[in-house]
Each structure stands twice: as C-alpha cells, then as structure tokens.
Amino acid sequence: MLTPHLNEAKKRTKSLVKIENFKMPEELKKIGLGKTYYVKTYGCQMNVHDSENIKAMLEEMGFNEADSMEKADLILLNTCAIRENAHNKVFGMIGRIKHLKEERPEIIAGVCGCMAQEEVVVNEILDKFSFLNFVFGTHNIHELPEILNKAMHKNNIEVEVYSCEGNIIEDMPAKRDSKYKAYVNIMYGCDKFCTYCIVPYTRGKQRSRRFGDIIREVKNLKDNGYKEVTLLGQNVNAYGKDLNLEYDMSDLLEEVAKTGIERVRFITSHPWDFTDKMIDVIGKYPNIMPYIHLPLQSGSDRILKLMGRRYTKESYLELFNKIKETVPGVAITTDIIVGFPGESEEDFKETLDVVNTCKYDSAFTFIFSPREGTPAAKMKDDTPLSVKEDRLHQLNELINKYALEANVKYLGKTVPVLLETISEKKDGMLAGYTDTMKLVNVKAPHDKLGKIVDVKITDVKTWSMDGEIA
Ligand code: SAH
Ligand code: SF4
Ligand code: F3S
Predict the structure, then answer these.
(1) Class of residue 355 by CB neighbours under 10 A (exposed 0-12, middle 13-18, buried 19+)
(2) Which of 46, 82, 188 to mutate to test the pocket of ligand 1 (most atoms within 8 A of CB)?
(3) What is the mean pLDDT of residues 337-358?
(4) Which architecture, in CATH terms, is 414-469?
C-alpha cells in the first residue's frame, strides 16, 4: 500500500525527469477476456485524454467497453479535485457503486485521477469506502495493468499512489473519443502554484515532452486521417522552460503547424508566459486556429496578487489587445473566479470592468472553492455565500450578453466547420466547431462527417448556432 502525502506533493527538487516507454506485459494481455469495463471521467481535457489511454490499456488486456456502469464488470472513476462539487459528485458515484457491488460482489471498482492524489481523499476511502478494489494516481496510470491484476486477486483494497514530482511515459496506447480530432499532451504538471489551485499537488512538477515525440505523434495522427490536434498542458505557454533548450512554445507551435495538419489548437494559455513571438506565429499560420483561452481569474490587481497570478489588469489588457490586433477574427474565452478570500465589491467591479472591456466570446465562471493544502484555503474569507452567489449571477448575465453579441456577428456569414458528430439535440443534424470554437448544428448529409465544410450561419443563440452547407 502506497498512499499520497500532501507535504511530499508540495515539494519541487531538481531531480531529473525520467522518460519511460510503456509496454503491456505479455502475461496480462488476457486477464480481461470476456469482461466489460466502464470508465467515468470528470474534470479537464487532461483527464479526458488520460481516460483515452486507460481505455486502450483495458482493451489490450481483453476487456470490452460496456454501454453503462450498471452492466460493467470493471468500473473506474477518473476523478477531478479542482472544486468541492467535483468531489461531491465522485463520492455520490461511489455510493452508487456500493449498491451495485451489493447485488454483484464480483464487480471490480476503482478510483484514479486527481482526487486519488489527495491525502484526505485516500484516507476517507480507506476509512469509509474500502469496499472499492483499487486506487491509483496520476503518476502511475501506466501501471494500471499490474495494479488491476493484483486487485483482481485479493480481497482488500489495493492502493498505489505516488506523491512524486512525476516522470514522462511515452508510447501509451489511446482509444480516442473522436476519429477526427485528438488531444496531444505537450507537458505535464504545473509549477505556477496559484494560491487557490490544487493542480500543482495532484499533477506534479512541470515536465515538457521532447518535441520530437510530440511532432511524431502529430504526424502519425495526420497520417491516420485526423483533422485537428489540441496541444494539452496546464500552462502550454511555458512549454520547454524546464528543458533548458533554446526551444519554446512558439517554436513548437510553428513546427506542429508545418506538419500540415488542418487544425491546431492549444489549451491552456496562462497570460504570464504568452510571448509576442507566440502571437506572431499564431497570426502567421492559417492552420493555427484563431481561438485562445486566456484565463483572467480576477480583474482586481489586489486579488490577482493574492492569487499569485503574476500579471496585472493592465498587463492582461495589453496582452489581450495585442492578440486581437495580430490574429484576425480571433475569439477569446476566459475563466473567472468570484468570491476569492477578501474579494470586496470594489474588486468585483474591477472584474466586471475587464469583462466589459474584453467582451469575451464565452467564459467559465466559478465561485472560489477552498482546496485543502493550498495557501488560499487558509486566507480569511468573510464574504457570505449569498453575496458570492449574487456576484456569480451578475457576472454570468454579462458573460451571456457578450457571448450572444459575439455570435450575432456570425449571422449570414459563411464559416469553416469541422463536422464531428451527429447532433444530440437536433434530429439528424451534424454538429461541429468553427475555427473560432463556436458550436454549430448543421443540416448536412452524414457522409460529411469528419470533413471541414463551409457553413452559412442561419440562426444564433448564446451557446450555439445553426447553419447549412454553403
Ligand atoms: N491551468 C489553467 C487552469 C486549470 S483549472 C490556468 O492556469 O488557466 C480551470 C479553472 O478552474 C481555473 O482557470 C480556475 O478559474 C478554476 N479554479 C481552479 N481552482 C479553483 C478553486 N479552488 N476554486 C474555484 N475555481 C477554481
Ligand atoms: Fe492551477 Fe495556476 Fe497551474 Fe493553472 S497555472 S493549473 S490555475 S496553479
Ligand atoms: Fe481537475 Fe485534475 Fe484537471 S484537478 S481540472 S482533472 S488536472
């Protein structure tokens, strides 16, 4: 049994990052034959992509995907720790698993992901939910075959979570959710330590992948018919900073663009490391999509300082304007936290002011959630929840107004859309995204799936648009 420790997770040393290659052990290739699995994923794109790796490993072991949790022989929750409500959802799900295991005790169930890296969570699991069969963390996803094998042969819970700074595992297989667009990790972990955020503790130190490995993966995806890649990292702009090479995010973006893959995206961009060179490269290559997610968090310099974000309202706006001027037609979205400890009405007004200036295409907005072990969780927070809820409501009204305004500009225009799926809501229509990341439902024959087509926008709403092939 190996459990996580907060104090270990906080550490950053100069130890070298090891790069290993994944290989499925021969003797474990059949342990899932005749059995089914169900993976439930919470959280960010990083977790979505981890689940794609997990599913592929399970299939290499002989498991088949079940269409519901109720029918599966193996259940795995890939969890997120970013806010309290993410936690609550997972504990609710563990309750459901308990009922399923009462009916079918042979079910094997486990927890992985960011919550598994939390000392408090693992202690709670050992204390109250030890009917689960296994727990592993974000640093040893590649050990799933061995961990699962052990869990299948013992009666008590198998816990294997490292609190290390993390290594890099290459050559993990992936069962991708889409045949047309793919996530590509370019870096793992985060060293920014924003005071509210748990990610540096759950994902370890910043580790950039070698650019050769990234380019090879992108070329491979392109050769296999993929139209779009999204380069993933908590801080993609800081790519390469840990490698001490004369090679940064702008170089990587340029090389990825030059592979000729039709669409290149990246998330998330911290305003801190966003260089002019990067903006120029984004403006220069038509296959780098004119869409940037640029988290603001707060518009108040005082709060930004308490958050440890290392930019000011002024420098953020300067960057924002530079991007708007250099990248024609760019859409910019953001993340905002309200109710950070000590946020006053004045501070909140500063946030609204930035929103009124930037008129974002859309935004994810959150009420501050104290995360155990982070500095902000210890800060004095005397704003009543009702005030925070009211601020969130005001903010959302404004965000929605500008989102609709941004969409209205598309009415009657013809824009490129990568048709990805059959629309869930609109009968028989296909759905996809514009280069600027707007969701469009399109009247189109199903043989257009996987193609980038010109679409004339016929109707717009706040969060989606309708269109027809031009
Ligand atoms: N690496 C990204 C953020 C990833 S987390 C970045 O730096 O931009 C996604 C978003 O969750 C953050 O941008 C932030 O707005 C929100 N978030 C993170 N921790 C939070 C907390 N403790 N409470 C509320 N929102 C939080
Ligand atoms: Fe969290 Fe800040 Fe790192 Fe983003 S940059 S993952 S908000 S610590
Ligand atoms: Fe959540 Fe972990 Fe992503 S905390 S947001 S799943 S990095």
Answers:
(1) buried
(2) 82
(3) 98
(4) Beta Barrel (2.40)
